[in-house]
Specification:
4-stranded mixed beta sheet; 3 helices; single chain; alpha+beta; about 120 residues
Length: about 120
């Protein structure tokens, strides 16, 4: 059976992204393998340390800049994460200094919020 093992978010600074995803969002570093100027750097949820890895992938490819800009301009998140209580998590992350571009919004069957991972 096919399954997702790794998915990527493009980052402009791997060290800064690692600090944000671990210190602010609460993920744990899984892999940190040097590959020349950059590294294969992944984080995982502490609730699923052997689950899907999020690759903090350098945004060096020429297509990535316009792609990221278009997503931001249209308000489309590059990744989605789940929490048990969106309102409580929004309050916790806001207290830590995380910026939200959309506060918790009830959409009927789901409540969403969109953060800026810088």
């Amino acid at each position: 059976m096919i399954r997702i093992i790794t998915t990527s978010v493009f980052v402009d600074d791997q060290a800064r992204a690692l600090a944000f995803y671990t210190e602010m969002l609460g993920f744990e570093k899984k892999e940190d393998i040097p590959l020349g100027e950059f590294c294969w750097l992944t984080v995982v949820s502490p609730a699923a340390p052997d689950g899907v890895e999020l690759l903090l992938e350098p945004d060096e490819h020429p297509a990535v800049g316009p792609y990221k800009e278009a997503l931001v301009a249209d308000g489309i998140p590059a990744a989605s994460f789940g929490v048990d209580d969106v309102v409580a998590e929004h309050a916790r992350l806001t207290a830590l200094g995380v910026t939200f571009v959309q506060p918790p919004t009830d959409l009927g069957p789901v409540t969403i919020a969109t953060l800026d991972d810088t």
